[in-house]
Design a protein that fits this description.
Blueprint lengths: L11 H12 L9 H4 L1 H10 L6 E5 L8 E7 L2 E7 L5 E5 L14 E3 L3 E2 L6 E2 L5 E3 L18 E7 L2 E5 L8 H5 L2 H5 L7 E10 L3 H8 L5 H4 L1 H6 L6 H19 L8 E3 L11 E7 L27 E7 L3 E5 L4 E10 L2 E10 L11 H26 L15 H15 L9
Antiparallel strand pairs: 1-10, 2-3, 2-5, 3-4, 4-9, 6-7, 7-8, 9-10, 11-17, 12-13, 13-14, 14-15, 15-16, 16-17
The structure holds FE2/S2 (inorganic) cluster (FES) and fe (ii) ion.
């Protein structure tokens, strides 16, 4: 990765000036400042990312008491563990003594978390079990020194976390997706494969790429052959209308063709976006695979292929693209100013067997291939955006509408973090 220069004169006042300038050109790409500034990066982690609902894992990945996984966001590490009572807990991987990480392994099974530094011991729910020799400190209260807890909810087996104790409710917004999403029986699904793509670009560039399909026709030939999303809606309206008209009946799922959209500034609560719609595949194709033909058994209660795919958003950073035979989840996590982890998780029916009911290579081919193409264009995008000579151009009004909505929300959220005396 090429390094970007640090602006030693960066300041809150400069951020305010840059934010004010953005309001004068609301339908253009953002100023390079927002992708380069370390001050912006720190503020967006604190005020946007750590206040948003974020997908962590699927319940089936931690089936037993003591099972855990780590989730890395920015410079932070979060432990998700299953307690002996069967409940899942999320907590910061930071010892309450002098701050060492209490767990290094990315996943595994433990009875307790023991800090390697001075040996403080924590239970699977983060509560303190023992602090070696601390009884000599008379005012020391073990129950006040548990690992810091993180909000956690489970929805259809999908586990989401939020580091803000005051975070808005998320189950309410998600409930609007229940009809179409319920058909996949995700709570009984299994993770067939998952892969983290570490991309050398700012997280907003990686996410913005996902939020628009203007680039699909030019960058994703295999995808574009199957999916109508790469075309202007007026050109594919007949294909869409025909699919929507037959979808509920053919799939046997009332509400399969439902649309719902409350994302970003319209979300019911901060960081609690919720969205679904169903879009069409071109005639002759029924799923997102190399040749558009099935790669796994039909999921959940879906009875037949309708030539459609379900598009979902859950929170600002998590998305799903659900075909009748498999689901593909995307999660975007910033790691540094110039590095992003994009995780893709492929789900199939819980009872489907690898090698018999599906071949992993065929299951993941389309989106692995498409994501490698994305990686290529995002890194080139990053190179140009990081130039001080980049002058942002206009968004396409239809293809880049959701991307624009994200940018409006992002800038609005940053603006609301300014101290009162610096707000307009
Ligand atoms: S830092 Fe963990 S026990 Fe001291
Ligand atoms: Fe793409």
């Amino acid at each position: 990765m090429h390094m970007i220069a640090t602006d030693v004169d960066d300041s809150i006042t400069k951020l305010k000036t840059k934010l004010a300038a953005e309001t004068k050109k609301p339908n253009r790409a953002m100023d390079p400042y927002f992708y380069r500034s370390h001050l912006v990066h720190d503020r967006e982690l604190e005020h946007i990312v750590f206040k948003s609902w974020i997908y962590a894992l699927h319940e089936s990945e931690l089936p037993n008491s003591g099972d855990f996984q780590l989730l890395d966001i920015g410079e932070d590490s979060i432990i998700i563990a299953r307690h002996t009572d069967g409940e899942l807990h999320a907590m910061h991987n930071i010892c309450r003594h002098r701050g060492a990480a209490v767990c290094e392994d990315p996943c595994g099974n433990r009875a307790t978390f023991v800090c390697p530094y001075h040996g403080w011991v924590y239970n699977l729910d983060g509560s303190m079990r023992a602090a070696r020799e601390m009884h000599v400190l008379s005012e020391f209260e073990p129950h006040e020194h548990g690992l810091k807890k993180i909000r956690l909810i489970s929805y259809m087996g999908l586990v989401f976390i939020n580091c803000d104790p005051e975070a808005a409710d998320f189950l309410g917004p998600l409930s609007h997706l229940s009809e179409p999403l319920g058909a996949y029986r995700l709570e009984k699904a299994k993770v067939a494969y998952k892969k983290t793509y570490r991309i050398d670009a700012n997280w907003k560039l990686v996410l913005e790429n996902y939020l628009e399909c203007y680039h699909c026709a030019t960058s994703h030939r295999a995808y574009a052959r199957l999916h109508t999303l790469k075309d202007l809606e007026e050109n594919v309206r007949p294909v869409l209308d025909a699919m929507l008209a037959r979808s509920d009946e053919i799939t046997g799922v009332p509400g399969m063709s439902t649309s719902y959209r409350k994302i970003y500034l319209d979300a019911e609560g901060f960081g609690a976006c919720s969205y679904t719609s169903r879009y069409g595949l071109f005639d002759g194709y029924v799923t997102g695979s190399r040749d558009g033909q099935p790669v796994a058994p039909l999921m959940g209660s879906i009875q037949a292929y309708d030539g459609g795919a379900g598009d979902y958003q859950m929170g600002p950073l998590t998305f799903m693209l659900n075909y009748p035979d498999h689901c593909v989840l995307y999660r975007f996590l910033p790691r540094s100013v110039t590095q992003t982890d994009l995780e893709i998780v492929w789900y199939v029916n819980g009872d489907a067997e690898a090698g018999k009911d599906y071949q992993v290579e065929e299951l993941i081919w389309l989106w692995d291939h498409t994501t490698q193409e994305d990686e290529y264009i995002i890194m080139r995008n990053s190179k140009g955006v990081n130039s001080r000579f980049f002058e942002p151009g206009p968004y396409h009004p239809e293809f880049e509408e959701t991307l624009r909505d994200f940018v409006h929300w992002y800038l609005h959220s940053l603006r609301s973090t300014l101290p009162d005396e610096l707000r307009d």
